[in-house]
Amino acid sequence: MRVCIVGGGKVGYYLAKTLLEHGHTPVLIEDDPAMCRKVADSLDLTVVCGDGTFAEVQESADVAHCSAMVAVTGRDEDNLIVCQLAKQVFKVKRTVARVNNPKNAAVLKKLGVDIALYQGETRDQILTATLDRATGYNNMIVNGGIVRNRGIEIEANATPFRNKNGWTWRLFGTYSANENTVMELTDDLFALQLQNTLSGRGSMEARVGQSMSAIYGTGYKRAPDGQIVYGEDGYPLLANDLIYLGDSNPKGKGSFGTEIKYKGISLNILFDGQFGGKGYSFTNAMLMEHGKHQKTLPGRYNGIIGNGVIENPDGTYRKNDVVANEIWTYYTRHSGRENLEGSMFNTDFLKLRELTLSYSFPARICKKIGMRKLSIGVYGRDLFMITNWPAFDPEFGTLNNGSIDKGFEIAQFPATRNFGVKLNIEF
Questions:
Q1: What residues contact residue 11 under an 8 Å CB cut-off, 6+ apart?
Q2: What is the C-alpha separation between 267 and 356, in angstroms, rounded?
Q3: What is the pLDDT of residue 367?
Q4: N or C: more exposed end of the chain, with fewer CB within 10 A?
Q5: Which residues of the chain have pLDDT under 50?
Q6: pLDDT (tens digit per residue) in 39-61
Q7: Contact 195, 400 (CB under 8 A)
Q8: Rounded to whole angstroms, what are the CA distances from 155 to 181, 256, 274?
Q9: For residue 386, what is the enclosing H or E element?
Q10: What is the DSSP string of 156-196?
Q11: In terms of Cα–Cα distance, which of 176, 139, 137 is closest to 156?
Q12: 10-21 vs 33-42: helix axis angle to the nearest 10?
């Protein structure tokens, strides 16, 4: 595959090197003569010295015969121009732009860039940190820290079928992923507590090296090999300190859909989903505590032996062999309100987000009744969902004193399906 790269810095250089190693044919455009010589001496590829925002420079690089254009300069505006030029003038099917300022990612997508890569740092933020109520205060304002954001946004569409009889079949999809990492906090701050919930048993904290949406809370005491530690009474033990439970932000989000049209009739179907996020379910904890969950059925009559180990007096471990007879205590220790880890779940889902069937009246009919456009249709939203989330919907937010807390579902209400009729009129 022939790929044009604009920008010969570190990103462009290593991208070209990787493409070469995988048998592709990269062409590099760079406006710094010294950088051009350095790349040409190091890599076996064509290097064009010039400004990639000019059509004649792209033409000299034979961009029209490239399968993709990748703009990775240090200037977002140049990357946008490069991609627009390649797409509109040279008809390159795929364009990728490096985004140095994450705020510009949406602009590039709207202007037709199929893939946007971004990385940026936010410094000296003004944040509200939650304090322990024992201090006599609810929170304090903190100014400081460095947070790095990087991610990718992709948009794609295709029309596999179209004929003269009025049939059209279109496919479209999007994908986005964002990673934020706390690089630095103030010198006297080990962790910045952004949320505090469940009477201090759970919180969302910013710690160096972790995400801004990291969840900490009560959890199991574990042996060095990761197994749950049980007491001599057969019930699981909790760790003394709050532990890391997961990240409430999903690793990726995506959507895909299709549109089938025949003359004025149109059928639109849209699915979307996410993966890689974690959340705490208070609903699950209450069901487990009150014996309303089917998971609490085992052991009700004869007791149960938990899967884990017991710590011996000498510090070694043996397989748990103690029968827990108080089944309420057993399941409360595992998944009740005191043990957040026992009610942590993936927030992955796939939803049938929207289905629409509509009819657009012909232009001649619209003209007769004094309208430019007229269409009528029926729609349904949030019609179907595939998820392992134990409550109603993994897309939740919990109201907490005027703010919406992420990561902690507290007595969630059922989600709703929406149905309706849509009428569009343009005069």
A1: 72, 98
A2: 6
A3: 87
A4: C
A5: none
A6: 999 999 999 999 999 999 999 99
A7: yes
A8: 25, 10, 16
A9: strand 373-386
A10: EEEEEEE-TTSEEEEEEEEEEEEEEEEEE--TT-SEEEEEE
A11: 176
A12: 30
Specify whether the CB–CB gap between 77 and 103 falls below 8 A.
Answer: no
Residue 119 is predicted with a pLDDT of: 75
d(CA 48, CA 349): 46
CB distance 372 to 427 below 8 Å: yes
Q: Which positions ≥6 away from 32 have C-beta within 8 Å?
A: 8
What's the pLDDT score for residue 114? 67
CA distance 134 to 315: 36
Rounded Cα distance between 373 and 264, Å, is 12
The confidence score (pLDDT) of residue 109 equals 63
Task: State the Rg of the chain over Cα.
Answer: 28
Question: Side by side, which strands form the sheet with 229-230?
Answer: 229-230, 309-311, 317-319
Q: What is the pLDDT of residue 426?
A: 86
CB-CB contact of 370 with 410 (8 Å): no
What is the model's pLDDT at position 105?
67
Burial of 296 (0-12, 13-18, 19+ CB in 10 A): buried
Task: Give residue 407's region: left, alpha or beta (phi > 0; psi -120 to 50).
Answer: left
Assess contact for 259 and 225: CB atoms under 8 A: no
Burial of 360 (0-12, 13-18, 19+ CB in 10 A): middle
Q: Which of 151, 166, 141, 56 is nearest to 102 (CA)?
A: 151
Q: How many beta carbons lie within 10 A of that of residue 32, not counting itself?
A: 13
Q: What is the 3-state secondary structure (H, E, C) of 321-385?
A: CCCECCHHHHHHHHHCCCCHHHHEEECCEEEEEEEEEEEECCHHHHHHCCCCEEEEEEEEEEEEE
Half-sphere exposure of 232 (CA within 13 A, CB side): 2
Using one digit for the tens of pLDDT, what is the confidence trace for 123-150? 777 766 666 667 787 777 777 678 888 8
pLDDT the model gives residue 76 = 85
Residues 260 and 267: beta-carbon distance below 8 Å: yes
The phi, psi pair for 207, rounded to 5°, reads -125, 150
pLDDT at 106: 66
Q: Hey, which residues does 217 pair with through a beta bridge?
A: 202, 243
CA atoms within 13 A on the CB side of 354: 15
